[in-house]
Amino acid sequence: MEVESLNNEKAPGFFARGWRCLKAKVVDITMNAKKLVKDDPRRVIHSLKVGLALTLVSIIYYYQPLYKSFEVSGIWAVMTVVVVFEFSVGATLGKGINRGVATLLAGALAIGAHHLADLTGQGEPILLGFFVFLQAAISTFMRFFPKIKARYDYGLLIFILTFSFVSVSGFRVDEIIELAHKRVLTILIGGAMCVIISIVVFPVWAGEELHNLIALNMEKLGNFLEGFGDEYFQVPGESKEKKTFLEGYKAVLNSKTSEESLANFAVWEPAHGRFKFRHPWKQYLKIGSLIRECAYRIESLNGCLIADMQGSSEIKSKIREACTSVSKDCGKALKELALAIRTMSQRSSTDSHIKNAKFGAKRLTTLLKSGIWEHIDLLQVIPPVTVASILIDVVNCIEKIAELENELASIANFKQVKPTVSPEKKQEVGSSQSKIHCSHVIITVNDDESSSASSANPNLSGPRNKEDK
Amino acid sequence: MEVESLNNEKAPGFFARGWRCLKAKVVDITMNAKKLVKDDPRRVIHSLKVGLALTLVSIIYYYQPLYKSFEVSGIWAVMTVVVVFEFSVGATLGKGINRGVATLLAGALAIGAHHLADLTGQGEPILLGFFVFLQAAISTFMRFFPKIKARYDYGLLIFILTFSFVSVSGFRVDEIIELAHKRVLTILIGGAMCVIISIVVFPVWAGEELHNLIALNMEKLGNFLEGFGDEYFQVPGESKEKKTFLEGYKAVLNSKTSEESLANFAVWEPAHGRFKFRHPWKQYLKIGSLIRECAYRIESLNGCLIADMQGSSEIKSKIREACTSVSKDCGKALKELALAIRTMSQRSSTDSHIKNAKFGAKRLTTLLKSGIWEHIDLLQVIPPVTVASILIDVVNCIEKIAELENELASIANFKQVKPTVSPEKKQEVGSSQSKIHCSHVIITVNDDESSSASSANPNLSGPRNKEDK
Known about the structure:
Two copies of one chain form a homodimer. Chain A is mainly α. The first copy, chain A, has helices spanning 2-39, 42-57, 59-62, 64-70, 75-84, 89-119, 124-142, 146-170, 176-200, 206-232, 250-253, 256-266, 281-306, 313-343, 348-369, 378-411, 423-439, 451-455, and strands at residues 345-347, 415-417.
């Protein structure tokens, strides 16, 4: 009786489970699709654009007069659209130009090779085979050159394809010139269709993407730094919620590949919006790599944040205010830099944030010198002091980012925007600085044991606070 | 007179400069090519393999009996070879299978769509156009799903291509079934040619590449850690040469993309060499991401190494021995782990290195507790102490790597190798440990000022030295 009921339960259970599993899968896919659309609605637009381009070029096939002039070659237009249409204008243009130029070059070379082989008579297949082998091997090897791979990889692929195609089929098809001519023409039609649609219908510019990505990465680091101080120095027991803004920086650690490919696409793009042709995209890569260096430091800060060993709360409370203000100023400076990039305008307020951060770093250095740590277990001192020293390093890093951003601004002619800080606010900043400066006068520490250390003293804050020089 | 002589100098100068420039360019390219070959001689072999495969499939065109059965469709074999042949077996297989399956599926669907459109009579082009639009839009959108993009991106591209191709050309060519049949057959021939040549002639297995890359990355970090101690604590004035081994870790920071693509290729590969089908490639990605985390810490260590502010040489000399030994043990442990992966065998000597490193970290913690830093300017204390605390963190990280490596070893059935350490050596390690342990007894620091700090004391070395638990 029991066995039977178990079996009975099993049979419908199996189907029910299968059904539930399928339903869960469908729900899962729908959720994923919704997230993809929500993250970037242009994905849907891109899909529709590809469909549109493909439908338009297939008219060559459907429309009698056009079909008469191209015949079966019309299919190359369809193929070109499928393989050339990419998400961004730059990628589409790059692939289109690569495909066009490579087809022309390889076609011409293949016709030459074909004529040369023709002269030998009997040995034609052997010579043609040798040519195909040689160009395939050489072109394939050339694809390993990093610079060529970045810009002309697709072109070399098409070169191999077209050369083999034309020279091999030339052995049979007598109207080789006509074949090449038709193919080039249909490829041009397909390529032009892709380029026109990708530029005209809601264009996605790789350059603008790179521009925004760099600004976004800065903002992510800025968010972390703005929130870090409060998070790290909070009284234990305070709520530890809404930490998502502290995780944003992780995406920056691995953004090198996407930045580089966007920069490679961007060079193909014509002037668009606020970007001229030959906008200094390489400068973005330099800034991006500095941002990543800054992100590595933030990874260390995050390590301090989540470490079990948090160190002396006494020391923490002593450096809390200075660290929090440095961290906030760094965050604000990064966000201002990001805003400057986004709006393509130089703001003097950025400089003031960096100055504040540098000032704060100096103040922190003074604080660390002032002997607040005496008679406390060094192990308890290390964690907060590590945080302080990483923050001082971050200030340094952000200063470098600002320098590179200044270079970018001068190359790309960013607008100059007058300070938006009101006079009262300015004064407030000034007075708070001097107030703090006064409250922490340099206290000389008893140097009895550290003769070698004190001899190194003059170099102390030198490299970290260029203001001194 | 002067002007003339200037012009005279200019004219030959211009050509001479042009010639020199060209010569420099050629020399530059040759050097680059030589470097590419030296770095990985398989690049030349790959190029020759592509040439060979292409020449072999073009025989379909040259050889009369074969040409009779395939006619112009033979060109699809050539195209397949050009686009499918990749550097590794996995990538080639993945592309080949994607292309084959997508062609079959899309071909069948397109024939169905064609028949359906046929029934409508007059509206055929419109309905076909609609189908092409719909499938292109849906397939393009599907390419945005990260999982699909990683494995089936090429398949979806070919799906769009074949569906458009067959359904569009079906409008004209009546022998649509025969066309599809020939195309599938030639694609199979081309694909099979690629797969066979890539497996038979000096195969490059993506799985093995991933396996070696992970081991290599470990070795790079190991090299850094082994050399770090001597480099950081060297007496100023000692030669600062041959630092190349200290730069190797930088490549690890950005290896995520290549690891992931290798893992994606590896799943397509059959059993090869020491790797079974369904070898746990995902485990390598987990290890790889931990290795990167360790690399971020090493980036911080490198920052300490090149910093202008080196801190108190007194403190440095006090912790020199302990830090150097932890760093060396970490390096050895990583290199042992790398060796274990390379040889696919578990060594008990690895555990002993990790134990040593953990022991060293504990010793370092004790040292830091022992008040060696008293009466020294904190700013002078920070740099060496930061190094020490990062090293303690690195030990923690390497322990986690070892855990994941153990998991990998048990899933992939690594061989067990008996310890290779000779008894004398073992004793030596033991005695040096106890000697050091004795020389640095825990000195209680005067806690008068840090009541809150001392209350946190029990947790001190807990999280960093799991041995305690």
